[in-house]
Amino acid sequence: MRIVLVGPPGAGKGTQAVRLAEKLAVPHISTGDLFRANISRQTELGKLAKSYMDAGNLVPDEVTIAMAKDRMEQPDAVNGFLLDGFPRNVAQAEALDELLRTEKMTLEAVLDLEAPEDEVVKRIAGRRICRKDSSHVFHVAYNPPQQEGVCDICGGELYQRADDSEDTVRTRLEVYHTQTEPIIDYYKSQGLVRTISAMGPVDEVTERALEALKSEQAENH
């Protein structure tokens, strides 16, 4: 299956993308990972992206699209992929359609994870990361440490990332509404969107997503 995953920051896209890709046995293609991989391997695209990022500018669509194209042409993506963080706007969605047409591929579903804005703000603004090991993540409401400000696992100091503050989260949501949300209407016009609630336990959200995709496959066969 070829799937695009969309949803606001804090809806749990990253978590669901990894789980769904594993269940569907397709690669999880995340723009963040693409940038990191190309920059660390010092590919031409990586060097180009880094030059924009170092100057504090957004990486142009064509560079992102070229990286995505390169990744989608890898052998492990022949039978499908799950795109996370791409396309980020309508221009990228149109470029993806063009790319898939050229490669004689079709997109089968766009999974839209929905979560109320206040919940998203609460989820992100409550996150606390360990300074010693950033994989140790806590939450002031949902997963509090035993001792405030101290990591249960290694005793490191817990802190709130600058881009997790409430003001920054609301700004990120504003960017999502103006730039990314329009792709949902773009794909709705193609009959591809399956909207599911991102609320509740992680396992339940994964099950909902798989059910939505199953109904999509059933309709197409």
UniProtKB/TrEMBL annotation:
Annotated GO MF terms: AMP kinase activity; ATP binding
EC number: 2.7.4.3
GO cellular component: cytoplasm
Binding-site list for AMP: 31, 36, 57-59, 85-88, 92, 161, 172
Pathway per the UniProt entry: Purine metabolism; AMP biosynthesis via salvage pathway; AMP from ADP: step 1/1
Single biological process term from Gene Ontology: AMP salvage
Enzyme class: transferase
Keywords: ATP-binding, Cytoplasm, Kinase, Nucleotide biosynthesis, Nucleotide-binding, Transferase
Subcellular location: Cytoplasm
Gene3D superfamilies named in the record: P-loop containing nucleotide triphosphate hydrolases
Pfam family, one: ADK
NMP as annotated region, ranges: 30-59
Binding site for ATP: 10-15, 127, 137-138, 200
Region forming the signal peptide: none
Keyword Lyase annotated: no
Reaction catalysed by this enzyme: AMP + ATP = 2 ADP
Domain Adenylate kinase active site lid: 127-163
Residues spanning the membrane: none
Subunit structure: Monomer.
Domain notes: Consists of three domains, a large central CORE domain and two small peripheral domains, NMPbind and LID, which undergo movements during catalysis. The LID domain closes over the site of phosphoryl transfer upon ATP binding. Assembling and dissambling the active center during each catalytic cycle provides an effective means to prevent ATP hydrolysis.
Family of this protein: Belongs to the adenylate kinase family.
General function of this protein: Catalyzes the reversible transfer of the terminal phosphate group between ATP and AMP. Plays an important role in cellular energy homeostasis and in adenine nucleotide metabolism.
Protein name: Adenylate kinase
